[in-house]
Amino acid sequence: MDLYYLLKKLKTAEDTPSTASEAGLETSAAIADQIDKGTLKLPKDDVAQYLYHLCAQPGSGEFALPRVLKSNVFAYNPLENRLKDSDVSRVTFFYGDHDWMDTAAGRRTVDSLNRRINGSNSARLIVIPRAGHQMMIDNPDGFHDAIQRALDEDEN
Predict the structure, then answer these.
(1) CB of 62 within 8 A of CB of 55?
(2) What is the number of structural domains in the chain?
(3) What is this structure's pTM?
């Protein structure tokens, strides 16, 4: 089955990646093979295992994805709008340096939250180098370092 067709079907139907796994499709291997076109620096077996376990979990948040996202992957109600008046006291946003998400919106949100909380640095944005949206796959060491840095800063 073509990966584009599969992802399009899952996005537009009431199906999730786990639906495909339950249907007996070898999605983890097929997706790993089609994603790994020489760009991933991780062992194929690790990627396949990661994707299998990701897809084999019961459906949850992915059922909300078609309702949250418009076509072209723009959020109906971006976090930037929802957090500006929130009571969030501490938050860290993580982006890959090649992320499809709007890093500028994340930066505006962080700046807005910090201004509202008396100029504090309670809101932070960390950009992970050599990574897209799947930071933990694209740059596992960079992702780990960023998480560790955020946790270390929280202790201080």
Answers:
(1) no
(2) 2
(3) 0.54
